[in-house]
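Notes to self, NAD(P)H-dependent oxidoreductase:
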Amino acid sequence: MSPLSLVAVSAGLSTPSSTRLLADRLAEAAREHLAEDTRPVQVTVLELRDLATDIASNLVTGFPGARLRAAIEAVTAADGLIAVSPIFSASYSGLFKSFFDVLDPDALAGTPVLIAATGGTARHSLALEHALRPLFAYLRAIVVPTAVYAASEDWGSAGDTRTGDLAARVTRAAGELAALMRDRPAAAPAAESVVPFEEQLAALRPEGN
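result:
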């Protein structure tokens, strides 16, 4: 049995990066949920910072380099995706958006996606709902109900009674992603070729007419 493929995309810019840390925590939590099954899981974390030049070149030339092509193939072949961006000016980062701009518009159709973000203040948490969720809805991905936002004060805090602490949100969102990955239907069969209407009419005419 082939392993399930889980890919986490981190658009963090600094080293170390809270965005990468959140991506790692979400990926590990999802892996733990999926470990309850007998099917193995392969986890890959992509750092967009390392691909920034390749992404810019692709946007200008239309052709991905070898490293970017490998990253695109990993994302498009994934059974589940975790997408994490830092929030700048109340939205996802330019690097984050640029990477998903170079994907084929249909590449993520039907793919379970967990969206997450980091920022300096909780005031930017709604960027997940007005920016990231619409982006992946447009790409026809299946976005899990729980989005995870981690502000600076969330790391190590107890959170509140409505959302819980960061660890609880990570666990809940990862569980939702794991459930979708388990239940994801097999790829639909290739569409049959369309026969032009004129040919269909010709096939109905009696011979000799």
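- The radius of gyration is 21 Å.
- The chain has one domain: 4-204.
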